[in-house]
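Morning. Coffee machine broken again, so started the prediction first thing and wrote up yesterday's gels while waiting. Chain of 227 residues, entered below exactly as on the submission form.
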Amino acid sequence: MSKKFKLVLFIRFLGNALFLAGIIGFIFMFGPLISAEAKYRVDKIKGVKRTVPNIVVSSQSTGSGDINFGVLANPSETSIIPVSTEYGIVIEKINANAMIVAGVNPAREKEYVKALSLGVAEALGSTPPGEPGNLYLFSHSTDAPWNIVRFNAAFYLLKELEAGDKVIVFYKNRRFDYVVFDKSVVSPNDVSYLTNQYDAPVLTLQTCDPPGTLLNRLIVRAKLVSS
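Came back before lunch.
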């Protein structure tokens, strides 16, 4: 085998390897986003509506006075089982389901990066669910495209929410239902939605927009309708 032939084989091998690495890298970076989009579109085409089933509450209470959740009533294939009723969020329309990490400083990258590896972050200073004020939850889709899988995917499809859609927050084994009334795309430097205070219970959700970029922030606000 001549040196020229070996060189050609090596170049071909290297080219194929780089091409394959590029495909794998693309899937690694954007796989969660593509998967979330695909599942949402398939459900929409099929007319599938995912819901949180009724929860039968146990008559026994914990030592702290909180009520224990019991069994789920009539679960089905389209049921969303909350990952946390101690502090969690479920958005049925986009099949979002995550625990909430409380008291996270959105100005400290290391702190919120750690929190977002576990779930959705509650901004430090937020009002507890059900109380008048601003409950601010954020889940940056990513700080850069190559880090997309390091961040929680719960809010990837937040852009699909419209006025009237329901957002469910569980807190200390209680359920709080909010209904969306506003959606905005704002500059990353606009912190007014974080500092806003309200006379009624308001839930504010934030993520990056478009997903995988740092260009803007998508803000969704919802008001409490039942608890």
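Residues 3-46 form the longest helix (44 residues). Going to sketch it on the whiteboard this afternoon.
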